[in-house]
Amino acid sequence: MEKNINILLVDDEADFLETTTKRMKRRGYSVKTATNCADAFQEIATGWPEVVVLDVMLPDKDGILCLKEIKQAWPTTVVILLTGHASMQAGLKSVEYGAHDYCLKPVELDQLIEKIEIAHRESRVKS
Amino acid sequence: MIKDIFHKFSEWFRFDLQRDSSVPGISFAQCYKGFRALLTANNNALELMAEMEQTLTAGRPFGMAFVRGNCTALSVNVYKMILSLQEISNGKYMSLSDSFKQITDELETILLHKPVSPTGAFILPMDQIDRQSIDLVGEKMANLGEIRNKVGLKTPEGFVITSTASEHYMIASNLQDEINRRLKTMDDDNLEELYKTSSSIQQLIINATLPEELEIQIMLQYRKLQETAGHDLLVSMRSSALGEDSGNVSFAGQYRTQLNVGEDFLIQTYKEIVAGKYRSQAIVYRLQRGFRHQDVIMCVGCLVMVDAVMSGVTYSRSPTNRRSEWIEINAVAGLASQVVAGNVSTDYFRISREAPYHILLKKTNVLGTINAAADSAGLTLSDSQANELAEIAIRLEQHFGEPQDIEWSIDRNGAIIILQSRPLGLTTAPTIGDPAVALKENTYLLTGGVTASNGIASGPVAIVRSNVDMLHFPKGAILVVVHPFPEWATLLNRAVAVVSETGQVATHLATVAREFGVPAVFGMAGATKRLTNGETITVDATACRIYAGRRQDILDHAAEPLPNLMIDSPIYKLLKKAMALITPLNLTDPASLYFNPAACKTLHDLTRFCHEKAVVEMFSFGSRYGFDEKSAKQLIGEMPFQWWVIDLDDGFSPDFNKKEKYIPISSIVSLPMLAIWEGMTAIPWEGPPPVSLSGFGSIIFQSTRNRNIDPAVRSTLTAKNYFLVSKNFCNVNVRLGYHFSLVEAHMSEFLTENYVSFQFRGGAADEWRKLLRVNLIKDILSNFGFRIDQKADGLTARIEKRPAAFLLERLKVIGYLLMHTRQIDMVMGDQGMVEHYREKIMNDLRGIAPGKEE
Questions:
Q1: Does B33 touch chain A if contact means CB atoms closer than 8 Å?
Q2: Pairing label, strands A30-34, A6-10
Q3: Predicted confidence band of residue B430 (pLDDT cuts 50, 70, 90)
Q4: Where residue B572 falls among pLDDT bands split at 50, 70, 90?
Q5: Total domains, chain B
């Protein structure tokens, strides 16, 4: 299993960021965090993140809109949406805007990591 | 993982894509990537559908978060399948999006459907309330108004703060989104988290400011009441939730009631009762019974306190015996709440149900574990009062049309005042006197008390004395307590039985235990001292006995479990309605004219369509670009029939010369294909079994009637038996004689991508024989952990998200079945033959996949 994926977690819940970062790092992933869409943009602009895990509810912007703008600016960035608030409309929009996956909180870390690994693997298939 | 795709691609199709600019569309690498994404989404979708269906039939509790979450995840995956198919087919099947939109729009309408918010006054006085006011005042208060204004019995004076008021309060505080978020992210299996979430939500509500106009109206109404009841007026404030006390659902003790509230605490208490909607036991209860949190709206009754000398509960029939022909009365000195809170002893009357209501049985100070208040010692219910109560019980039962559970008080003037009446939850008759049970009666550990809820259960003892003990309460344990306090109800979805040292059948905990079908014995003295934590016992609540250890002989007498508790709940109906757009499969035959996007009426149809077409697209991908048929290699091996293999990616050994027409099995490196092949070849096929004359006749008859089983009529895809393979993937269509099978499997280091699926259809013999065989295959595959969906003589079996090693064993089983069951329906004339084959097959399989049965 590949371990050296650069992951950016975007969420405004400090608890979630802290525990998930700790647990992912323990498994050998490189993790950075952002608490809003603007910060996430800055981070993605550096080219560091390979996979972005994005919460749907952000303080500065609707996560779906944030996803749309990320994919417009950097179409190859892999984005996985995470939400505590299931909504079919948001889910379908996220697929339309190019999210690789859409998952519901609470999500088990093993499951999230699988989704990250798969999305990352698929993103490396060049056309 | 994907190595040198381009190289392979050009080898497979024998031309250079990059030079052929006239060909539009995507590369093979993209196509194969899209195909894999489609398979994974299909895997997720089918698993989600199965989980939803199981939840619906098993009666497991679920909430709105489950329904919405699963519907969302499901539609996201189906949508991904559609987009992937459109991608790999180069824009074909665009009309799938229309069918999808139509289905998901309908689904969304169902999910968003919320009971219409009631509109009306913030306050309704008791003299204006009856059953018609239910949407404004909740069931409890609507019933009480009905008793006062329609039946003509005495009830306390007062008013109700309506659902309009509490909705107004919740909207003004703007808290609902935050509350929903906290509930959705909560792991409801974790008790500590449940308590934390529950108390944080209640604090949110209590800390919010009550809208001024509402506060003014409440105080105004209270002062009006003071004019008749005096300045030192105290009220009882009772929750009356909308949806509460309806049908078989009691919500007993889940919400708050506050007695003796004066002017100063009126507003604070109101807020606390509204917040009480989110008490932990109420959250668990709603989850168990299928109520959406948003469907429950709190109304609050403010009733003048009755200066009670006696209080009690009357059942118009025995709550533990639906065949009983008597009325039961439990009475205590003082307030009725003591009876239902479960901590005082009671007087007990049993009275005939016909006028003039004979007293059949009378016991005073029934349990004697705790003395009633000292100043009322010796006070008991008179026979004439008992008679009057019996008459009231029958009147109420007749008015409401079903047995009732009635709370009442008698004031200083001797007047009977009704505090509440609701349908009585009845359970099945006890099995006292069962000879087999009686035989064992001298071997028990403890006996005594009363049956609070019928039934027998076994498990480890967990003594609970405090909230801290509750946190560590293990699932499947027996709850042992001193007093049956309503708070313990939170544990009833984890406990298999309840034993309490005090209490009787009228307590809230007993009511909820009966509803949940959890056996309970109350009033069993010394239980917490005689039993130790962790010790396994068997509780026969019906016979009021406890046995040491797990006693199967006793358990065998347990009554059938209660029917699905969710079935009448709003959320069950909602999910059921949603499922009609999800699981039915209308598209079964790919050869049919109706196998098209417009005919997709459910999400299942869409997954079926997308999957079928994706396989076809992969198969014919090359032909769109000038695919050379020779790239299909014929397999060399000692097998009947001819087999071809197409490599999608990395399914052939690197040493294999791609120019060869034939391929030996030793050059195949596709793990799932090798497993299937191993199963196919493990035990030589014995040739067609001897066909009885009638079996053969049935084949000829079917052949003339059914074109589908004529081997001459074949679609291109099934003209030969093809394996489509990569290292971790295999799809094989098998048409052997009259039988059609499809096996597909994917292995990966990621469980999300793993599955084995097997479809089986057809057979030349008559329907009865085909059915026998399908049933046989179903039984065998069930043993190996497959989830089976059977439609007439067709069968689909699936396992997903298990480790590769586990799935490879299953593929061997399927490989075996492909070869060995295909013609046995011809000889399966009777059950004896079925058993013969079942034995042979299971025997063979033990050799092929030893010890892998589940």
A1: yes
A2: parallel
A3: very low
A4: confident
A5: 5
**Cα distance from A85 to chain B (closest Cα, Å)?**
6
What does the pLDDT look like over B203-260, one tens digit per residue? 999 999 999 999 999 999 999 999 988 888 999 999 888 754 444 444 555 567 888 8
Which chain A residues touch B749 with a CB distance below 8 Å? 1
Specify the pLDDT at position B94. Answer: 92
Q: Which 108-167 residues of chain B touch chain A by CB within 8 A? A: 108, 111
Distances (CA, A) of B156 to B147, B252, B410: 11, 20, 11
Residue B477 lies in a domain: yes
B744 with B779, same domain: the answer is: yes
Q: Give Cβ neighbours of residue B565 (< 8 Å, ≥ 6 apart).
A: B59, B61, B288, B289, B290, B515, B516, B517
Sheet holding B456-463, edge to edge: B446-447, B545-548, B536-540, B456-463, B478-481, B497-500, B520-522, B450-453
Q: Do B72 and A126 touch (CB under 8 A)?
A: no
Residue B672 domain flag:
yes
Does B79 lie in the same domain as B51? yes
- % helix / strand / coil in chain A, to the nearest 5? 45, 20, 35
Q: Both B136 and B235 in a single domain?
A: yes
pLDDT at residue B435 in the model:
34
B193 lies in the same domain as B215: yes
Give the residue from A13, A80, A95, A110 with the most B CB atoms within 10 Å of its CB, the best one to mutate: A95
Residue in A85, A88, A96 closest to B108 by CB: A88
- Structural domain that includes position B653: 629-848
Packed helices A37-45 and A63-73: angle between N→C axes, nearest 10 degrees = 20
- Average pLDDT, rounded, for chain B: 79
Q: Which of B335-339, B500-504, B684-688 has the highest mean pLDDT?
A: B500-504
Look up the CATH number of the domain holding residue B419: 3.30.470.20
Question: B304, B323, B349 — which closes off a domain?
Answer: B304
| Contact status of B90 with chain A (Cβ, < 8 Å) | no
* Among the partner residues A88, A94, A114, nearest to B104 by beta-carbon distance: A88
Looking at B283, B304, B325, the residue that finishes a domain is: B304
Arithmetic mean of pLDDT, B14-23: 36
Quick check: is B557 in a domain? no
pLDDT value, residue B12: 40
Closest CA to B193 of B204, B202, B182, B203: B182
Q: What is the pLDDT of residues B270-289, one digit of tens each?
A: 999 999 889 888 888 777 76
State whether B86 and B175 are in the same domain: no
Q: What percent of chain B has pLDDT over 70?
A: 77
**In terms of pTM, does the model score above 0.80?**
no
The reply to whether B242 and B366 lie within a common domain is no
Residues B441 and B394 in one domain: no
Q: Do B40 and A118 touch (CB under 8 A)?
A: yes
Rounded distance between C-alpha atoms, residue B160 and residue B180, angstroms: 27
Set of chain A residues whose Cβ sits within 8 Å of the Cβ of B30: 125, 127
